[in-house]
Amino acid sequence: MTVGLFFGSFNPIHIGHLIIANVMAEAPEISQVWFVVSPQNPFKQRKSLLHEFDRLDMVNAAIQDNFNLRASDIEFNMPKPSYTIDTLTYLTEKHPDYTFKLIIGQDNLKSFPKWKNSDQILSKYGLYVYPRPNSQPSELLDHENVKVIDSPMLDVSATFIRKCIKKNQSIRYLVPSEVEKLIVSKKFYL
Ligand SMILES: Nc1ncnc2c1ncn2[C@@H]1O[C@H](COP(=O)(O)OP(=O)(O)OP(=O)(O)O)[C@@H](O)[C@H]1O
Ligand SMILES: O=C(O)c1ccc[n+]([C@@H]2O[C@H](COP(=O)([O-])O)[C@@H](O)[C@H]2O)c1
């Protein structure tokens, strides 16, 4: 089985993430997509970062009706910050019969060469890159192990959603209603 791994902070998960995961889960070569919730991105320090358990709850609420999408808390018990190669290595050892592919947004491609052991990630796992508005150019787009997903750009971000919440503006349709319910009831991001 080939699993597409979609790593992220998901602070919170939004329709952009879900559309990307769904497009990838429908690709003939991918059987499932796993959202891997990262406690701490090595490159991002944010005061507004919710606890990983709350972010995982929102991911689970968002995907509850889709059997092809799973949530993973594998990084919760691993050293922080969350280095993707360490998680990929661990998952590969844990599931020797599975093939893992990495899914990332195009905005992350520019800094990808600075990720820990990025060459190894590229050669061993390969990248599926989902186009994103305002992404910087990257030579990696022409790399043989990088596949650009042919699907419409989605101009939505977790940053925008957090700002809407702070300004008391609606986030309806930007996140699934189950996620919106959690955000409201738990007073996240206010
Ligand atoms: N609209 C989008 N289009 C393409 N890729 C996206 C989009 N939103 C998120 N991603 C990708 O999803 C993964 C997880 O992203 P993340 O959880 O940081 O969301 P984000 O919206 O970029 O958050 P923030 O605004 O807080 O930085 C990353 O690989 C990111 O590039
Ligand atoms: O492994 C690395 O060096 C590395 C550097 C930067 C980001 N990452 C991972 O990339 C994922 C995307 O992060 P984010 O915050 O943009 O959602 C998240 O899982 C991070 O842990 C990983």
From TrEMBL:
Pfam families reported for this sequence: CTP_transf_like
UniProt KW Cell membrane keyword: no
Keywords for this protein: ATP-binding, NAD, Nucleotide-binding, Nucleotidyltransferase, Pyridine nucleotide biosynthesis, Transferase
Matches recorded under Gene3D superfamilies: HUPs
Segments forming domain Cytidyltransferase-like: 5-163
EC number: 2.7.7.18
Catalytic reactions of this protein: nicotinate beta-D-ribonucleotide + ATP + H(+) = deamido-NAD(+) + diphosphate
One of the GO BP terms on file: NAD+ biosynthetic process
The UniProt record lists the keyword Iron: no
Organism annotation: Fulvivirga sediminis
GO molecular function terms listed in the Swiss-Prot or TrEMBL record: ATP binding; nicotinate-nucleotide adenylyltransferase activity
PANTHER family: NICOTINATE-NUCLEOTIDE ADENYLYLTRANSFERASE-RELATED (PTHR39321), PHOSPHOPANTETHEINE ADENYLYLTRANSFERASE (PTHR39321:SF3)
CDD domains assigned to the protein according to its UniProt record, in alphabetical order: NMNAT
InterPro entries on file: Cyt_trans-like, NadD/NMNAT, Rossmann-like_a/b/a_fold
HAMAP family recorded: NaMN_adenylyltr
Family: Belongs to the NadD family.
NCBIfam families: cyt_tran_rel, nicotinate (nicotinamide) nucleotide adenylyltransferase
Listed SUPFAM superfamilies: Nucleotidylyl transferase
Pathway field: Cofactor biosynthesis; NAD(+) biosynthesis; deamido-NAD(+) from nicotinate D-ribonucleotide: step 1/1
Official protein name in the record: Probable nicotinate-nucleotide adenylyltransferase
Function: Catalyzes the reversible adenylation of nicotinate mononucleotide (NaMN) to nicotinic acid adenine dinucleotide (NaAD).
Domain of life: Bacteria
